[in-house]
């Protein structure tokens, strides 16, 4: 293990021992330092918000950008504890679950459930909660810092979730789980490494993954959206129904509905969305220059 890896593990283990209120204070401090430093996160966030909220007052958009950077830092510090502490401690931090019936409803007996989880609030907590409800499967890509892999993997698998690789073997595992009437978790709001198709996202053409559409078409499963919204005293887990058109056979119709579902989730907590991600790196004509410095 290299020095960088050792340091990362040591920091995460140390932060993971802190109560939630203290990890949040450290996250708040780190986030504000990032804002004052006017680094890459704030720069990218400003670009994305300008694209997605062009009619918002400039002052309000700048305030949202700064809040978003701080909220992302809070997530980073929170997950250190969530990956390491007993689930009972994390569960105590869940204040309420909104629309929980969406997780248990079935139109057909034994029908699988696809849960789309945008990067809002603490998505790690949300995923771990879902895995307490029954067999669940999710894609997993090892982190760039290899030393963190055991810690992250053990945390995500704490409640029995099945982690599968982000390749054809993993996709087959997702299909098998859904056909068996189980739950599958997918993060729907990042550019796919390969393939994908363009669909509107806040009025902008965004390269969008086709995985969810293919899973829906090949298994006839149900679909819902969900995220963990940060509250002052813990978290609210929120479930939202998917539009009927997400089940459409036509791919572009389904992808547009999926992106609108992500937008609906963001509307519930816009400052807690991970706006720091370069969502519009590629356009229909190829790579864009939206994030180029200068």
Quick recap of the structure?
The protein has 294 residues and is α/β, with parallel strands linked by helices.
What are the defining features of this structure?
alpha/beta, 7-stranded mixed beta sheet, 294 residues, 10 helices
* Class derived from helix and strand content: alpha/beta
Helix and strand succession?
HHHHHEEHEHEHEEEHEEHEE
Could you give the order of strands across the largest sheet? 1-9-8-2-5-3-4
Rounded mean pLDDT score: 93
Based on CA atoms alone, the radius of gyration comes out at 19 Å
Unreliable residue stretches:
none
Describe the biggest sheet?
A: 7 strands, mixed
Kindly state the percentage of residues in helix: 40-55%
Beta-strand residue fraction: 15-25%
Count of helix runs: 10
Distance separating the two termini: 37 Å
Principal-axis shape: globular
Tally of strands: 11
What's the layout of helices and strands?
Layout: H1 3-16, H2 20-37, H3 40-52, H4 58-84, H5 87-91, E1 94-98, E2 113-116, H6 123-130, E3 136-140, H7 149-156, E4 162-165, H8 168-179, E5 183-186, E6 197-201, E7 204-208, H9 211-219, E8 222-231, E9 234-241, H10 251-268, E10 282-283, E11 286-287
Parallel strand pairs: 1-9, 2-5, 2-8, 3-4, 3-5
Antiparallel strand pairs: 6-7, 8-9, 10-11
Helix pairs in contact: 1-4, 2-4, 3-4, 8-9
């Amino acid at each position: 293990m290299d020095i960088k890896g050792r340091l990362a593990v040591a920091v995460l283990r140390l932060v993971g021992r802190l109560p939630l209120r203290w990890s949040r204070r450290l996250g708040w401090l780190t986030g504000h330092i990032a804002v004052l430093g006017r680094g890459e996160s704030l720069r990218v966030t400003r670009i994305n918000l300008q694209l997605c909220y062009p009619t918002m007052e400039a002052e309000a958009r700048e305030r949202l950008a700064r809040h978003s950077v701080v909220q992302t830092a809070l997530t980073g510090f929170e997950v250190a504890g969530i990956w390491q502490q007993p689930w009972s401690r994390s569960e105590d931090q869940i204040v309420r679950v909104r629309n929980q019936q969406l997780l248990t409803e079935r139109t057909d007996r034994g029908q699988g459930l696809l849960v789309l989880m945008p990067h809002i609030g603490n998505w790690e907590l949300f995923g771990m909660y879902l895995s307490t409800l029954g067999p669940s499967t999710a894609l997993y890509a090892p982190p760039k810092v290899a030393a963190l892999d055991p810690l992250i993997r053990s945390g995500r698998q704490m409640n029995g979730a099945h982690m599968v690789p982000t390749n054809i073997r993993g996709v087959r595992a997702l299909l098998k789980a859904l056909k068996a009437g189980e739950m599958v978790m997918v993060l729907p709001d990042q550019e796919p490494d390969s393939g994908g198709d363009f669909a509107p996202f806040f009025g902008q053409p965004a390269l969008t993954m086709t995985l969810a559409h293919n899973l829906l078409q090949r298994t006839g499963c149900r679909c819902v959206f969900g995220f963990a919204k940060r509250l002052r005293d813990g978290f609210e887990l929120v479930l939202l129904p998917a539009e009927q058109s997400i089940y459409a056979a036509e791919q572009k119709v389904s992808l547009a509905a999926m992106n609108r579902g992500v937008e609906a989730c963001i509307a519930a907590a816009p400052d807690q969305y991970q706006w720091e991600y370069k969502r519009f790196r590629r356009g229909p004509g190829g790579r864009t220059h939206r994030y180029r410095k200068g």
